[in-house]
Design a protein that fits this description.
Radius of gyration of chain A: 17 Å
Helix content of chain B: 25-40%
Shape of chain A: elongated
Strand content of chain A: 15-25%
Helix content of chain A: 10-25%
Number of domains of chain A: 1
Oligomer: heterotrimer
Structural class of chain B: alpha/beta
Largest sheet of chain B: 6 strands, mixed
Number of domains of chain B: 2
CATH architecture of the largest domain in chain B: 3-Layer(aba) Sandwich
Shape of chain B: globular
Number of helices of chain A: 3
CATH superfamily of the largest domain in chain B: Thiamin diphosphate (ThDP)-binding fold, Pyr/PP domains
Order of helices and strands of chain A: EHEEHEH
Chains: A alpha+beta (100), B alpha/beta (391), C alpha/beta (324)
Order of helices and strands of chain B: EHEHEHEHEHEHEEHEHEEHEEHEHEHE
CATH class of the largest domain in chain B: Alpha Beta
Distance between the termini of chain B: 52 Å
CATH topology of the largest domain in chain B: Rossmann fold
Number of helices of chain B: 12
Number of strands of chain A: 4
Strand order of the largest sheet of chain B: 10-12-11-14-15-16
Radius of gyration of chain B: 21 Å
CATH class of chain A: Alpha Beta
CATH topology of chain A: Alpha-Beta Plaits
Chain lengths: 100, 391, 324
């Protein structure tokens, strides 16, 4: 989080004048289960993209481009709605070691 | 000087006429005695196409203030009007309007708050909002209602202020009393108030803003500090507005009005229409050779402490009249005056009189009685007395 | 051409939905899906959404200062007044447009969002007033059947038998005993209004109703069943499935009332018993442990059956008979 500003350094009225500042806020740290995506099974139906409550599914022109782990909270909706089981939910603990 | 015309109108008409000339983009209002005629007159202007204002006939005062907040945030000049229980119903949103720094102007026709229910004048309604972050102006008569409504727009919208303003007038006494009022031509008022320059308008879809976020311990305090600063700025800004208005009309306004104060030793302080009665009594007592005077308070929030100190320091006695009580504490105006004089080099005797609750009449005899208490040096600073109460 | 998921995904490759990432709703929450669907539909159809939000989970979680998850104009005023607030915004729009201060080539769409507390209960008067006055806006109720923001208290929308902290299932009283308020009927009773139910499990139906609301020249009311996984006590990944089940069990019939004309928009060929909807939710666990559980569930079954029959009758009776 950025350094806190003084009262005379912020817009008045409690107004947030910049749109979408929450994009800087990482919600991916909440995750206890990680969706793992298998491109080979994917048919780009966009169900996961459509239903993700956190808009953590990346797509380009209706082609699935993977999962944005900066935001993904690991709810598993994507895996559940996927008609081809192309997304598997795995415990986050499996990945701790790898990332180190 | 501008060519004006005089009309015999009520305080409610004076407010509505000012609103017609200001011609806000949006008015949302709900009728309540004794504010109703303001809404009725204004609705007629809308119905006749005299103004281009869009009016929202809301289902409650709560929605009136809510809609006004929406409209003002959207980037519109927005107004409403209310009284008593209506103001109390708005209460939550009154604070929100101020905290969002929306320059709303609202005539408030002062009436006693329930209960028991009462429709007549006292200041309990507006006093319940004295810490809401609104600028509060009190008028003595219909002319002041008209003039201060117009000046209130400039004050509210000033870039260093951007706070909502309540323009208070005493229920029935001013709102329904007919008096001659000097009115300015429409174009003069329009040019005086100018165009609203909205800050962060919600309807600017190319610059999307978020109004009303959840503001926790990291920033809430900073936003409150901004409101405190804006109130301080009123002291810098208001005199330039009243000066400009004086040049147009010859009518001078300020935070307070000193009346026969030059050599006055015994001074009364009051809000609203009662000042007219006090002036009459001051004139009588002066004729009798008594050195009395009046300090009328035009602006109650922000409270003009410096002016109060300047005018009251060194007087023999000061009598403060309050048209509302603060149960379990000193009456609001008295408390403010007393606190202002804490640092005074020469403190006058102080006395507190509560009067006129629920529309109880205040007459020259009662005012004279209070003056006499002061002149006999019978005031006790910690004693609250009552004028016109059966005891 | 009706909107599809593929089509939407193409549209939003280089376009923002209006709700951004980084909001702090619970994992698996139904509310952001509801909001996203409504905004995407509006934006895909060329509208510029302007949003009012009532106090609630979504409001607090999406705007923790200095963060905002909104990239469209957004105002939160208080809990009980989102409809009045948006009516002020919409009126300002009309006034400023008349004065030539609004770009003429942009299509604005005014949305008010509220949870069930802000809609069925504390905000009902404000909503009724705004609908009666005929402002052109779309009110979207995200109905999670309780005051979930403050930790699962009973609302006028909580179903009978659900365990809440203010109407707990006790030794004597079986949780909430009253039926869920029929909010759609209440709003439809304002006569000149488009009112409909939707849910995220039936997205095509959802989007077509939003589309209809956008083109309706007056107020619209969309009631969206939006599960709270936290207090319905269902697994986080079941959000969408459970809304489908709500439709299949007649718990949440999908229909619309367009100026008095009823139309059921989803008629499942076979229904499941309402107990299937109840039994998968842990908020009914204590109810199910009671000796009178079957009796209470039967009552709920009878209620949803009768309501469905009544809807069929209303559909037949009001066909081609709009009030206005």
């Amino acid at each position: 989080m950025a350094e806190l500003k003084k009262w005379n350094e912020i817009p008045i009225g409690g107004v947030i004048t910049e749109p979408g500042t929450a994009r800087k806020y990482q919600t991916g740290t909440w995750r206890v289960k990680r969706p793992v995506y298998d491109r080979s099974k994917c048919i780009d139906c966009m169900m996961c993209w459509f239903y993700c409550p956190d808009q953590a599914i990346m797509e380009e022109n209706s082609v699935m481009k993977g999962i944005n782990y900066f935001y993904c909270k690991g709810c598993g909706i994507c895996a559940n709605v996927c008609p081809k089981s192309a997304i598997e939910m795995r415990p986050e603990t499996e990945f701790i070691h790898k990332e180190e | 000087m501008i060519k004006t015309h005089k009309e015999a109108i009520t305080g409610a008409q004076a407010a509505a006429y000012a609103m017609k000339q200001i011609e806000p983009d949006v008015v949302a209002a709900y009728p309540i005695t004794p504010q109703t005629p303001i809404v009725e007159y204004f609705a007629k202007y809308v119905a006749d196409g005299v103004v281009r204002t869009e009016m929202i006939p809301v289902e409650s005062e709560h929605s009136a203030m809510s809609a006004v907040v929406g409209a003002a945030a959207a980037g519109a000049r927005a107004m409403t009007a209310t009284s008593a229980n209506g103001l109390a119903l708005m209460h939550e949103i009154v604070y929100i309007a101020a905290s969002m720094r929306l320059p709303v102007v609202m005539p408030v026709v002062n009436r006693a708050l329930s209960g028991p229910i009462n429709i007549h004048c006292d200041h309990s309604d507006t006093m319940a909002e004295r810490d809401s972050g609104w600028i509060q102006i009190f008028c003595e008569d219909s002319q002041e209602v008209y003039d201060l409504m117009i000046m209130a727009v400039r004050l509210a919208e000033h870039e260093q202020v951007r706070l909502p303003v309540m323009v208070n007038q005493d229920g029935f006494i001013i709102s329904h009393g007919v008096e001659p009022v000097e009115l300015l031509p429409d174009e003069v008022v329009k040019s005086f108030v100018g165009e609203l320059k909205p800050l962060y308008p919600l309807l600017d879809i190319d610059h999307p803003v978020t109004y009303g976020p959840l503001d926790l311990y990291d920033y809430y305090f900073e936003h409150k500090r901004q409101q405190i600063e804006a109130m301080k700025n009123v002291f810098k800004v208001f005199p330039s507005i009243t000066e400009e208005f004086y040049k147009l009309t010859g009518r001078r306004y300020n935070f307070v009005e000193p009346y026969r104060m030059d050599d006055a030793q015994y001074v009364m302080v009051a809000l609203g229409s009662t000042n007219g009665t006090i002036k009459y009594v001051v004139d009588q007592l002066r004729e009798e050779g008594r050195k009395v005077g009046l300090l009328k308070i035009w602006m109650f929030r922000p409270f003009p402490k410096a002016e109060v100190q300047r005018y009251l320091t060194g007087r023999k006695a000061v009598v403060v009249l309050d048209r509302s009580a603060s149960f379990g504490a000193e009456a609001p105006l008295y408390e403010a005056i007393k606190s202002s004089l804490y640092e005074a080099a020469a403190k006058p005797l102080l006395g507190s009189f509560v009067y006129g609750l629920g529309g109880r009449d205040i007459n020259p005899e009662l005012v004279r009685f209070a003056f006499e208490k002061a002149m006999k040096h019978e005031l006790v600073a910690d004693q609250e007395l009552y004028l016109g109460l059966r005891e | 051409m009706p909107l599809t998921m593929k089509k939407l995904a193409e549209v939003f490759t280089n376009k923002e939905t209006g709700l951004t990432q980084g909001h702090r709703m619970c994992p698996g929450c139904g509310a952001p899906i509801t909001v996203k669907l409504a905004l995407m539909t509006a934006k895909a159809l060329g509208y510029e959404p302007v949003i009012g939000f009532a106090t609630g989970c979504m409001e607090v979680s999406s705007t923790i200062y200095p963060f905002t998850s909104w990239s469209v104009p957004y105002i939160h005023n208080a809990f009980e007044n989102v409809a009045a607030t948006i009516s002020g915004v919409e009126t300002a729009y009309r006034s400023l447009k008349k004065a030539g201060k609004i770009p003429a080539d942009r299509k604005y769409a005014f949305f008010a969002f509220g949870g069930d507390g802000g809609t069925y209960d504390i905000g009902l008067q404000s909503l009724s007033g705004a609908v009666e006055r005929g402002h052109k806006f779309i009110y979207i109720l995200y109905d999670n059947e309780g005051y979930m923001n403050t930790g699962n208290q009973r609302s006028g929308s909580t179903p009978p038998g659900a365990d809440t902290t203010t109407a707990p299932v006790g030794k004597k009283i079986p949780g909430k005993v009253q039926l869920k308020k029929n909010i759609v009927e209440i709003i439809a009773g304002h006569e000149y209004v488009y009112a409909a139910t939707v849910t995220i499990g039936e997205p095509m139906d959802f989007m077509s109703k939003i589309e209809k609301a956008l083109s309706f020249e007056g107020p619209s009311f969309i009631a969206a069943l939006s599960p709270c996984v936290r207090y319905w006590r269902v697994p986080e990944d079941q959000t969408v499935d459970i809304t489908k089940l709500a439709v299949q069990t007649k718990y949440w019939p999908l229909y619309e009332v367009d100026r008095g004309v009823y139309r059921i928009t989803r008629k499942p060929t076979s229904f499941k018993p309402v107990s299937e909807f109840i039994k998968i939710q842990e908020r009914f666990r204590l109810l199910l442990q009671r000796p009178d559980a079957e009796e209470i569930i039967n009552e709920i079954q009878q209620y949803v059956d009768k309501r469905w029959d009544r809807l069929l009758a209303l559909e037949a009776a009001t066909k081609d008979k709009p009030i206005r």
